[in-house]
Design a protein that fits this description.
about 160 residues; mainly alpha; 2 domains; about 50% helix; about 10% strand; Transcriptional regulator
């Protein structure tokens, strides 16, 4: 899912798998294997290397909470995610913060397991990807209101009116 979000962010450029690997702190082999799985699942067109936008959005909204479930854990220092990070933090007032565990961050909240171990590095390197990953986490752990807000923002990004 992270790879497809990054592909959408760079889709108007001539990207290569090695570029994705470097940006996401993954190995080229992991990228290649993941892209092949996405093609098999019909989330990515193998010829054009375009993301199947509607299918991808529906998978994120309905499938992500089931295939990558998580429950808020103990209080830790970390990087805000879900409704605790932008853009939802501007719309949702919540007493409890959700964070990805990170000793270098200043926030405290309930630990949320990231989609993969090096997601913090990728999010710190790309602010727009960070926002999209936080929205994805809101789908994973949010209540109905947060899920709806996150879904609306992700849908606007994935399926803009002019595409």
């Amino acid at each position: 899912m992270v790879i497809l979000l990054k592909v959408l962010l760079v889709e108007n450029t001539s990207w290569q798998s090695k570029d994705l690997a470097q940006a996401l702190f993954l190995s080229p082999t992991e990228i290649s294997f993941s892209l092949k799985r996405c093609q098999y699942a019909r989330l990515l067109d193998g010829q054009s290397r375009n993301v199947s936008r509607r299918t991808f959005f529906e998978f994120l909204f309905y499938g992500l909470p089931v295939t990558f479930p998580t429950q808020p854990g103990e209080q830790v220092r970390g990087m805000p995610t879900a409704h605790s990070a932008a853009p939802l933090s501007q719309q949702v007032v919540a007493g409890q913060l959700y964070v990805w565990p990170d000793a270098e961050s200043d926030s405290w909240g309930c630990a949320i397991e990231p989609l993969y171990p090096r997601v913090l590095q990728a999010a710190k390197a790309d602010a727009r990807l960070y926002e999209l990953l936080a929205l994805a986490d809101a789908l994973r752990v949010g209540r109905p209101r947060e899920r709806k807000l996150a879904g609306d923002l992700l849908k606007a990004f994935i399926m803009p009116a002019n595409v």
